[in-house]
Structures are given as structure tokens and as C-alpha cells.
Amino acid sequence: MKTEKIEKTEAALSHIDEKGMPKMVDVSQKIETVRIASAHAKVSMSEGAFKLALGRGGKKGDVLGTAKIAGIMGAKKTSALIPLCHPLNIESCDIAFEPDESNNSIIIISTVKISGRTGVEMEALTAVSIAALTVYDMLKAADKSIEISEIYLMGKEGGKSGIYKR
């Protein structure tokens, strides 16, 4: 049974051709639909770094404002970072921050939207990853032990496979 699952999984990989080589998926025949994806990341830090992140008091300036811009830019540049991703004309990208004072952490949520022939899951995941890395970069002088974790796809809509919710 385990072998069947592995074979089935391998057969379902859309970025591998029949010879086992990487390929870009041909989306030319897909129907254009509205595609939305949301992703999650968590950044945990010391109490001092957490206060700096929320207070716009970091040496480099507004931590969360800068991370928001970086996340949006990351979503827009996903195809330059992930080799087989299609370059997309992103129509909307939002980055939200949910501070958790009891754990000195910040939850980052990205939502990316497009009308197109392929999904925006990778763009949403790239957005939260780049936003989280920017938080680290801006606060590393105050806390080098900052931890980035829990990066995952929360959900997606549109396309042939429909709705996915984690």
C-alpha cells in the first residue's frame, strides 16, 4: 500500500516530465479564474525585541511597516526566486500582523489575489517568508535568537481543484 501511495504521488507531480526532468507547467489551456491564497508565519522573540517591533523604535525604523512592504515585494518577485513558478500579474497582496504579547510573537498572514490561469500559493508563502525574514533583519541587533516558524498555506480558492482550507 505504501508503494502505491509513493507511485501515485510521483505521478501527480506537475513540475516533473515523463523522463523525471523538471518542467514548467503549461497553463495555456487552463480557464482564467479568480485565485486567492493565504499563508501564515510566526516570528517569536524576546520581550525587548517584541516591544521594539510594535513601538516603531527599532534602529532601522518601522519594523512591521517595512516587513509589510518587503512581503508584498517578495510576492511580486516569487517567479525570480522559485525556478518553475510562472511570472504573475498580482492584483492584490495584503500582509497583516497579529501580535501575541503573551508569547512575544507576531503572526504574519498574507493574502494574495489574481485573475489568472494558475494559483498564487507560492506567492502567499513567499510573502510571509520575506516579511518574517525582514522582521528578523530589523531586530537582529536586539535579539539574534529570533525564531521563524509555522510557515504554511492556510487556504486557497479558485482553479480546477477548488477550495482548500487548512
Please tell me about this protein's structure.
The two termini are 26 Å apart. Helices cover 34% and strands 28% of the residues. The longest helix has 19 residues, at 121-139. Residues 1-11 have low confidence and may be disordered. With 166 residues, it is of the alpha+beta class. Strand 2 and strand 3 (105-116) form a beta hairpin.
Strand order of the largest sheet: 2-3-1-4-5
Q: What letter string, H or E per element, gives the SSE order?
A: HEHHHEEHEE
Number of helices: 5
Helix content bin = 25-40%
Estimate what percentage of residues fall within beta strands: 25-35%
Q: What is the CATH fold-level name?
A: Alpha-Beta Plaits
Q: What is the count of distinct domains?
A: 1
CATH class: Alpha Beta
User: pLDDT average, as an integer?
Assistant: 89
Largest sheet, described in full? 5 strands, antiparallel
How many strand elements? 5
Q: SS-based structural class?
A: alpha+beta
Spans of 5+ residues with little confidence (pLDDT < 50)?
1-11
Fourth-level CATH superfamily: Molybdopterin cofactor biosynthesis C (MoaC) domain
